[in-house]
Amino acid sequence: MKALVIFLMLFGFTAPVLLAQEDGLPLRITVANEDDLGNVTDEFQENFFEALKQKAIENYERALASLEKCEKLQPNNPVVHFEKGKNYKFLEDYDLAISSLQKANRLKPDQEWVLAELMDAFYRNEDYENAIIIAKNLVPINTRYYDNLADLYMKSSQYEELLKLLDRLDAELGIADYRLGLRQQVYAITNNTPARIQVLLEAIETNPEKEANYLNLIFVYSEEGMEQEAFGAAQDMLEKFPNSKVVHLALYKFYLEKGEPGKAMESMKIVLKAEEIDAESKFRVLNDFLLFAAPNPEYEEEIKEVINIFSEAENSPQVYQKLGEYFLIKNQKEQALSYFELGIEKDLDNFELLRNTLLLQLDMGRYNDAESLSEKALEIFPAQPVLFLIQGVALIELEEYRKAEEILTFGLDYVIENEAMEADFYEQLSKAYTGLGDAAKAADFGDRAKELKNKIN
């Protein structure tokens, strides 16, 4: 059975006192205050606070220029080097950031606010070994840096060290979601499926009120093809959490594969109505439902009901596209086009949806609609030759031959290494010139089209 797509818990830093920095390690930093500056002159103070101001408005080069002036006045002031390190880090010059922060640490050793920034600079520079050394120095200051150390072991692929640390922390502090997530990642990377399953079973036993542990267990079982175990875990979860909506993300697939469509429908409806389930997951459920129902006409009424449920719960252009494709497969073109056009109203930037809508408009003889929509489409995708071709076809059908000739000639310049499309352009230009009464050019482009088609075939 294909692995179930289930949203697992996010594995991130959860310590409440940590300040998450973009793309870096979460840090617990005690910001240096004015008292840390020591005895300073007015000139020093003026330049220092100018540096802070420039940093605040993200003018890091100017901040560094002011800090250089401060350094000339007080070359051994650790706060100056600390601030230089932070500005270099914002500029992503991690080597200079590390150098400045190391100097700050030498001048004022073992300060948390310096070490935390230094650890983060090593982390961003992908120097995990040195970041680990700093993290180990931070742990005695604050045990919350164990989470940083664990993450660094993961980044440097030191899985044995990581598991030892996690065992120790779990024994001392109890099981935490963050550490449980790291264990799962390690076991997944090392293909240790029994350990993945065991740790989740233990997590469920320790914390039976947490839905995420059941979902993760279902996912692992499904990923390993253990269908009965996965279904059993889903049933256990439903029994434990009878009002859970998320469990039906797993159950509907099991019911479909077990040949129990009635139960599958009920689970799908629960998912589609659930506010706590995201639109992407609902969309996958709807797609599975349409794939199941397409060859089974007896579910036509169920389809209408599900569509109404989804339309009320979510207003996603992608949904309209999928519904249009479904009805197109069933050759219900009017219904398909109505959904495509609803999708276009919400998402004109969707090129695939635009193309499908335009082609169906042409197929159904909606030439005015196709001409109008293709004109809007070309404003967004001005280099897409198929849009010029569609507009040209629509204009020819509307007997606007001069406009058709102009748009087709212009669009032909965008056709690159596509002989089939080039032949289509020639064929339509032949029709345009026929409409204009220019028999010679019509014949010329007709011959070009035939020559290319013969070459392709």
UniProtKB/TrEMBL annotation:
Tagged with keyword DNA repair: no
Signal peptide (residue range): 1-20
Keywords assigned by UniProt, alphabetized: Repeat, Signal, TPR repeat
UniProt key word Endoplasmic reticulum: no
TPR repeat copies, ranges: 78-111, 317-350
Pfam families noted in UniProt: TPR_8
SUPFAM superfamilies: TPR-like
UniProt protein name: Uncharacterized protein
Classification lineage: Bacteria, Pseudomonadati, Bacteroidota, Flavobacteriia, Flavobacteriales
